[in-house]
Amino acid sequence: MTAPARGIGAFRTRIDGIRCLDDPKTVTQRSRDYYWYSPILTELLDGLTGDLVVIPQTQDDVLRVAAAVARSRVPLTLRGGGTGNYGQCVPLEGGVIMDMTRVNRVIDIQPGRVRVEAGARIARLDKAANATGQQLLMWPSTRQIATIGGFLAGGSGGIGSLRHGMLRDPGNISRVRVVTVEDTPQIIDLHGDDIQKVQHAYGTNGIVVELDLALTAFTDWIHGAALFDGYDRALHFARNAQEAGLDCYLLTTVERRFSAYYRRFGDLFPPNRDAVFTMVAPDALAAFRGCVEAEGGRMSFAMTQDDVRKAGLLPAYECGWNHTTLQALKADKGWTYLQVAYPRPFETDLVMRQMRRCGDTVYWHHEMARMQGQVQIFALPIVRWQGRDAMYALIDELEERDGCTVFDPHAVTIEDGGMKEIDKDQIEFKKRADPYGLMNPGKTRGWTEDLARDDGLN
């Protein structure tokens, strides 16, 4: 029997009574996420699987799993809804996949805050907040499937970031509870800036089991679209609407070539107009319309979410962020994408130069957001796949020629994707929370084998 096989056998014995799945189909399915958005990651990650799926039901179960992993010295990969795009929940070295979706209690909701377990689906969590007249500050476009712990571990912002900033901005998360992976697991509560030790860390440095999140007053947002004759006009309007303080939860500019992938909308998003999809407060709708018309545009539709569903349309949040990539990939597998942050102050002319330069190989869409209190504009363009060399030539051009920052979605490690450098605080915390280096091995270049504690098997 091989050492990994002995480790898995010992692990199963140690967690007797906690649900495990080992049939190959299930293990393969839960060893994947949305990395297939990237041909580069598809080549790297296809065929990699864990050995066993374990499904804890409670935080006490998680403590038992953490101890068993440490004592058996087997790799551990955490999984939520599996909606990440970077292969975060793909086990590079096999081992145990821990599905966190049953550790999902909404523990307590108070004015302005919610305490929740990490495996809670974001849509369900938001619905629970809505019942108290409140809502989450932000969420990803994959809210129906994604978990709140997965959003913390792999996300950075999303719908609502226009209004409330990025996930890591102060006040958005007030506490994170982490279980360490060691022979006798510890429970660590992180507050304030210390939360960044586990935020966007791909689940490499401790098991997040519980979070305290800020809430805001509930708004029954109006989902709509404004149409413009020119992408520069769409961008100009969206930037001005944000700077003017119109009460919006989402402002997404989508150029006209995307209309072929938004077929449900028909004439509401025609191929000869560029669109701004929005979620706008009902009492700001009249001002919003006025600003659209002042910019030479017109409102295409404006409906509550219930009416949007009844009409067979998509809610506005499924027309932006990375759902834009998904809409294109459903129709044409030849696309992939990039994630681009623009220098401040934002210049519409830069985007127009990029559009002319890239031609039909790149279709553009932009997100209005805030970061550390300032307007920050991102793009998630779809890119025609022409090979690795062409992709990295484009990345170099966007960064070196245009002054943009590209968060590379084709990289498997944290540092090569978004961080651009090794986060020493996260690595120092990993020494404490994952001293044997068992969590998601291979996903951070900052961890090397010589950092692992070596005190023999128990």
Written description of the protein model:
With 458 residues, this protein is α+β, with helices and mostly antiparallel strands. 30% of the residues lie in helices and 23% in strands. The chain is built from 15 helices and 21 strands. The strands form four sheets. Strands 14-11-13-12-18-19-16-21 form an eight-stranded antiparallel β-sheet. Strands 5, 6, 7, 8, 9 and 10 form a six-stranded antiparallel β-sheet that branches. Strands 1-2-4-3 form a four-stranded mixed β-sheet, with no helix packed on it. Strand 8 and strand 9 form a beta hairpin. The longest helix is centred in the N-terminal third of the chain and has 14 residues. The two termini are 19 Å apart. The mean pLDDT is 94.
Notable traits:
single chain; 458 residues; alpha+beta; eight-stranded antiparallel sheet; six-stranded antiparallel sheet; 15 helices; 23% strand
Portion of residues within helices: 25-40%
Quote the distance from N terminus to C terminus.
19 Å
Q: How would you state the average pLDDT, rounded?
A: 94
Q: How large is the share of residues in beta strands?
A: 15-25%
Unreliable spans are none
Cross-sheet strand order for the largest sheet: 14-11-13-12-18-19-16-21
Shape: globular
Helical stretch tally: 15
The count of β-strands is: 21
What about the largest sheet?
A: 8 strands, antiparallel
Coarse structural class: alpha+beta
Rg, nearest Å: 22 Å
Briefly summarize what is shown.
The longest helix is centred in the N-terminal third of the chain and has 14 residues, at 59-72. Helix content is 30%, strand content 23%. It has 15 helices and 21 strands.
